[in-house]
Each structure stands twice: as structure tokens, then as C-alpha cells.
Amino acid sequence: MPSIIPSSGSATPKHSKIYQFINCRLVREGRIIKDDFWIRDGKILNPEPVFYDERVHADVKIDCHDALICPGFIDIQINGGFGYDFSSDVNNLEEAVSKVAKGVLSAGVTSIAPTVVTSPNSVYHQVIPRLVKRAGGPEGAGILGIHLEGPFISPEKKGAHPPQFIQNLEEGISKIYDVYGCLDNVGMVTIAPELAGATAVIGHLASQGIVVSVGHSNGNLEDGEAAVNSGASFITHLFNAMLPFHHRDPGLVGLLTSRLISKPVHYGIIADGIHTHPAALRIAHRTHPQGLVLVTDAMAAMGLSDGEHHIGQMKVLVEKHCARLVGTNTLAGSIVTMDYCVRQFVKDAGVSLVEGIEAATLHPARVMGIDHLKGSLDFGTDADFLLVSDKGPMEVLHTFIAGECVYSAPDAPPLAPAYCKYSSEK
Fold first, then answer.
1. Torsion sign (Cα): 84, 86, 92, 94
2. Residue 75 catalytic?
3. What angle do CA 95, 100, 104 make, to 5 degrees?
4. What is the Cα gyration radius of the chain?
5. Among 89, 297, 348, 384, which one carries the catalytic annotation?
6. DSSP 217
7. CB of 112 closer than 8 Å to CB of 101
8. Is residue 271 within 8 Å of 345, Cβ to Cβ?
9. How many CB atoms within 10 Å of residue 413?
10. DSSP for 24-40, written as a single string
11. What's the pLDDT tens digit per position in 215-250?
12. At a CB cut-off of 8 Å and minimum separation 6, what does 337 contact?
């Protein structure tokens, strides 16, 4: 496992400290390559100008012992975890965010979009101003913006959302601000596209730089196409809480191959082995591989044992790793972590590890419009990355944010006390 060795070169005082990871392999441009990995000032560094223009050497070399380096995972649908729920723990929201953001580091997640499910207006008015976007670091994964999953959804496809708080969009854009209060920290909104007034609202949200997703919908393909042509670009947990595929009207699933939309869509998949049958997962991937985005849809029970938990205003019973609304057969989010989803996706869909990793990194970064900063190991992007073992099932060994090691697995030898100050912390 990684160890630091002194560099033979001497650094001049004119540059910030440069770290060179050696004896490693990189996930870069859709394949695994053998190369060194350089970072400086929290960014991924192109070594050529360092050699030929700056004429300096690395200050520190880290021996990775053939570990694989990949971008940090990005989870754009996560309701909570470790006993906390973003939609109901309003009185201790900061504690909830801190606990979840730090807890997911062990799963290799470096950025999240905290998800708030259908709730009373008062919840949105309290949560949205306080759940602010922020960069990640030792305190946990970065916050990309809130994912508001409701309340503008179909009562027929409510899933684990409380029906008494579901609302319509007949009043249009004014209803959005009445319900949410403000949109300052919002990154994504899920809307049922068949709702009256949805098209205008989708266009307005997209014009504000907010990602609009279609989901929890009783709508047909034509409804979905109108939404995408108005600015929607994502599908919330494909196959779940929407009309099933039908050969005469494939519903929102048909957006994966529609020729009547202005741009290709991305779609979320919960690859927990419960929400999506392996055959359905393979169909989606083989139909539109570049659009597949792994999401956990994790709820408060993630990281905890079976028992009674909650998601938003609803009580959930977790038994045998499956979360369902109490007294029903309705799935209520998942309890899995992102590294688990990557492994399950690779296994069930029969894809390469690189494809599994890109579905949790590059693809969600594209959805959120941040692929120039995150989701790859391209030069100049943020140094949010993982060292993983791929000798068997993928295992996260070390998690880095902005070039700083913020988590090391308990069984992974530490990089060095001076370099990784958060070894084995969760």
C-alpha cells in the first residue's frame, strides 16, 4: 500500500508543494493506464510544464504499490445515512449533514447532492437556506446543491413520499417560490412532467442553472419529451416510480432512445440488487451507456443495522438489507453505499470496472455541469480522487479531496502521519 519516499530532486521556494504518486495505475479517458499522478494546490497537475518550463521536481513521492487511482465518487441522490435524514432532522440539520458527509468518505464519495423528499412547505423554508453548497475536505464530502425530490410529483407514483404533502403546479412558477421559499442552494429538482404547468416551470428552473429531472411520474413518453425539450436533462431512478415500459408507449424509459428530444438525457440507477433487476440494468446500459448514473438513494439506515428508521415524514422498516415503508411492500430508498453500487453494477451488468467507475464519477459530474472540475483525472481538475484495490472486488483504500487524504481504510497501511492526518477516521 502507499508509502512516502523522499524525492531526489530539490524544490525551489518559488512553487507550492508538488506531490507525485508513483507505481500506480490511473483511470483516465475510459481506460486504465500505467502512469505517475501529480497534484499541486488541490489540482491535478500536468507534469510536462513542470519539467520543461518550471524546471522543478516533486517535493514528495508517494509509492502506491500498483494501486488504482480513480476520481472520487459523486452521489446526486442521497436522502441521509448513519441515523440522519435531511428531510426531517431539521433541528439538527448541520449535524446531519456533517455526519453523512464525513461518513460517505469511507465509500469513496467526495461530493453529494443531499436529497429532500416531499415535505411540508415549512421544511423547505428551513432546510434550503441552511444546506449551503460547499467544497469538500476533512469535514466531509462537498455539497453540490440540494436535490429537491418533490413535492411536484404524481400521487399515483408517489413511492415513499407522503401523499398529503404532494402538490400540483397549476399556479406555475409562483408556486415554486411559494413552496420552496428560495432556490439559492438548489442543484436539482425532480418533477413529474405530466403535471399542468410543468413545462413552463422546467424552463424557468433550467434557465436558473438548476438541473431538472423527470420522475415519480405517471406520464407517457410525449410528456417526457416535452420536458426535455423545455430543459429537463435527467431521469430520477429509472424504472422506479414511473409507468412501466410498454411497446406502444415506453413511457419515460423511452427517453433513452427518443429521436424527438433536443439533447440526450442521463438517468439514475439504484444498483443495489433490489430496486433494479440485473436484466433491466443491462437493458438500460446497453441502450444508453453514456447516460447511466449510479445513485444510492440512501436513507437514514445506511451504515446501521436492521430495524425501524425513517425517510422524510415516513416510517421505514429495514429487514434483510431492504428498506420498505412500515406495513407495506413499497421500497423506501436504499441502505447501500456508492462503492457497493459500483461493485454491484459491474457484477450485474457485466461491465468493466472502468465503466462502473465512470457511472459514479464522470457521468454524474456531467449531469451537474461540473465535469470541467470533477469526475475525471484530467489535468487542471480538482484533485478529488481515490486509491482503490482492484485485486478482486473493488475496495476503497484512501479518499482524497483537493489533494488531501481525508480517509484511509482501517486495514490499509497509512500513507504517513504527516500526510494523512485522518487515517481510518469516518
1. positive
2. no
3. 155
4. 22
5. 297
6. B
7. yes
8. yes
9. 14
10. -EEEETTEEEE--EEEE
11. 999 999 999 999 999 999 999 999 999 999 999 999
12. 104, 106, 107, 109, 296, 298, 302, 303
